Amino acid sequence: MSQAQVPTAQPSTTDALAPDETAPVAAVPRGMLVRALLGLAAPVLAEHVLHIIVGLTDTYLANHLPTDKAEATAAVGTVGYIFWFIGLFAGAIGTGSTAIIAREVGARHRRRANSVCGQSMLFAAMLGVTLAIFLWLFAQPVVTFTGLTGHSASYALDYTRLLAPSVPFLVTMFVANACLRGAGDTLTPAISMIVVDVVNVIFSCGLTYGLWGMPRMGFEGIAIGTMIAYIAGGVLQVTVLLVGRGGIKLHVHRLRPHLRDMKRIIRIGVPAGMTDAVNWIANFGLLKVVNRTAPLNIAAAAHINTVRIESISYMTGFAIAVAVATMVGQSLGMKDQRRAERFAYLGYAIGGGFMTLVGVMFILFSQYPAAILADDPEVRALTAKCLMITGFCQSGFAAAIVFGGALRGAGDTLAVMLITMVSILTLRLGGVWLLGYFHQPLPVIWMLLATDLFIRGGLVYWRFVHGGWKRIKV
User: Rounded distance, CA 239 to CA 231, Å?
Assistant: First the structure.
């Protein structure tokens, strides 16, 4: 137990790439680095593909209900933003956990890694229960605050209250995944999340339409299917950590508060959480503007559809960023800055190349995915316009995601926070509210969003080239 072991799900990644102390960095072949990166990214990508399918399935089910299609779609998308906010808290804990555990695993300090895992799960459990109680008690004002009205607001209220009991399981699931990924095991969380997503699709479809012997519940079936999946995922991932799969283990005695490890998690996690919180505030403000943009409900549904389709591109970038963050953290733990830098550039070559290609496809063929997702001709046409616009920013978006992942893996979360705040406050938040004030249509809003993402990618890359991340202490 005194030395870190190679994660069981990734038996070759750490050992094959741990450089000989006498060997120059350049001696590590590029092909070996690429294989290591893809080996970590592939399970995460598979997981994200299932997430995309789940998101598209929920949106498709809402778009094809017998009545109130646009209203139901707007409600599903809006509640997604509410749960994105919940995910910010889990993400803050998870970012700190991933960076520290990766550094400890790279330095072969397994006991310290297990201690951080225990403190992370303690944080997750307390936070999850608190958020669930808040969401249940204040569901009505939360939905009112989103700007939804009429049937859309009623649907969103029902959806939120049905999902509230699953919040503790959702938060613990996210944090457990972060701990495993920090240890270099992306396969185990991916398998678990694929199981969760499959459960989600089966129960959401079954309960919505009354399939496979399940009761026909209509719109409520979408929410109940998601709730079942979140609960299953939380139980599964805690079990995985208790068993000790993936090179890290949750010990019961590690759940006692440990001030030093809590401070380490907070020091890295809080800036990351604030970064994501600012991003969420801007996007939530955007949602409120879109929910009031003419034509009502049509614009909201088209916005949600565009985000769902765009996820085909950016979820791939996020998968690569997870792998980059892990390998950068482990490389710095090995005192090998050059190796960390190479992983970041290889990650952008792969993730940025794919996202740029998908962006070109969005520009040329946006009408086809828009037609698949929605059968309302107005929603379909507006979705295609917005999708074409977002195609132009995918290369810059990729830089923000992948190099941002590298900076987070190094523990340089403060710089990412400052860049994100500047970008969001000057463009996304202020600009969108200005456009809303002058009643601009949805495609104009998406032009501003694309500009924001492209500029943010340039700023994040500038910080990476600056090199301050190489001197961060975690």
Answer: 13
pTM for the predicted model, two decimal places? 0.67
- Under a CB-based contact definition with an 8 Å cutoff, are residues 100 and 182 in contact? yes
Q: 78: which 2 tokens?
A: 């809006």
pLDDT in tens, 312-367: 898 889 889 988 988 898 888 888 888 889 999 999 999 999 999 999 999 999 99
CA-to-CA separations, 339 to 222, 233, 329, 332, 346, in angstroms, rounded: 45, 34, 10, 8, 11
State the Cα–Cα distance between residues 121 and 171, nearest whole angstrom: 9
Question: 363: exposed, middle or buried (C-beta count within 10 Å: 0-12, 13-18, 19+)?
Answer: middle
* Per-residue CA distances from 303 to 114, 165, 383, 387, 437 (Å): 42, 28, 7, 9, 18
Token output for 307: 């985000």
Q: Which two tokens stand for residue 93?
A: 């804990």
DSSP line for 167-213: HHHHHHHHHHHHHHHHTT--HHHHHHHHHHHHHHHHHHHHHHHT-TT
